Give the backbone structure.
Amino acid sequence: MEKLIGPKKIKTAVFISGEGSNLNKLIKFSKIKKTPISINLIISSKAKAKGLIYANQSKIKKKIFDFKNRNIAEKNILKILKKNKIKFICLAGFMKILSKNFIKKFNGKIINIHPSLLPKYKGLNTHEKAIKNKDKFAGCTVHYVTSKLDSGKIILQDKIRVTKKDNSTSLAKKVLKKEHKLYPNSILKIFS
Ligand code: GRF
């Protein structure tokens, strides 16, 4: 990834589908002095995504695309990304799988946060799997997005100890707290 030169921030889009707690942290991060990014666009795959509240609060432009037809959705997303001069994409709880073609167009410029210690537990239900397997540690990973699901180069990881009292809900809560720090730190790592 190219280094940040001068005061210009990297125009970033965040893609969400749900709660948007990571989006909220990224918006906060984009307002601090040392941040390399500005968030100029929020894309949601769901009209009712709770996270859209953060777009409203921060007055960041938001667009909703239902992915019933992925080709059409991606075509329109690419158009709006271009129009807004977006150079970097953060997936934050985005529940759709982007096509090879889309990823190629933003090669090396899309990152994702995943709630497991990759390469362990790609895909869904990561916390359930960690509990079921009696793992000692759980955690989260920020990685580059490639056409292979949850398999791109790892940028940063953080972990927590799983206690006997933990269930998938308590684990999700603890890991999410870690995610909120890991995502901004990963962006700092990429651009410094
Ligand atoms: C997070 O656990 C993230 O790792 C996963 O989906 C969840 C999204 O949470 N991909 P939020 O929407 O950012 O609150």
